[in-house]
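Record pair follows.
FIRST:
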Amino acid sequence: MRATHSFNYPMKRLIILRHAKASWDDHNLNDFNRHLSKRGELNSVLMGKFINSKQGKPDLIITSSATRAYATAKIIAEQVGYTIDEIITNQELYLAWINDLLKTIAKLPHHIQTCLMVGHNPGLTDLINYFGVRLDYLPTASAVCFEFDTSEWSKISKENSNLEWYQFAKDL
């Protein structure tokens, strides 16, 4: 990964965020419909404030349609000044594998420069590793941000990735 940039076109920035901690209190709910725990809500607020301080408002927030992921995205959106009604939910991001994540990213609109993607493990951890950062496990409400020196989402790769930052919720 490069530490310096020598290009004159807009870069793409991807913030990969795992949903916050979900509650196991209601055993009648299936996995898809689990809500955030109180800790998950608090960590989402803290992570949203952190993202806002590092990046400001992203151009797009896209999330798994699972209840805990969408709730995380809404809390993050509030903290970064992103309109909640503009959050894109995508059923295909629920428990998506790396190839599905890459296909979703490749289809992002060209005018989007910074995208925050909220999803699930193990796919998100695999995606981070694909871009060249060795990570065993992305914890809940934790984020990794990459910048890509390309102007096309369909051309992001390990070769043009640059780790900008990472933040684990437990360290906030």
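SECOND:
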Amino acid sequence: MEEKLYLSETDKKIGGVCGGLGEFFNKDSTLFRILFILLILFSFGFGLIAYLAMWLVIPRRPKS
């Protein structure tokens, strides 16, 4: 079965992007949160734009 990337409904702080990435890559979502914070700090806000874009693009998991 093909695994797809979805926003997390259970592991989310703001939009579920980092939780969804953690579920998709089978890693701790805290790692992705730290990476986004570092990206925001060291890229003059590009990380924030990337997070918001992913929040808009990544679909929610369909209800079964």
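COMMENT: The two ends are 16 Å apart (CA to CA).
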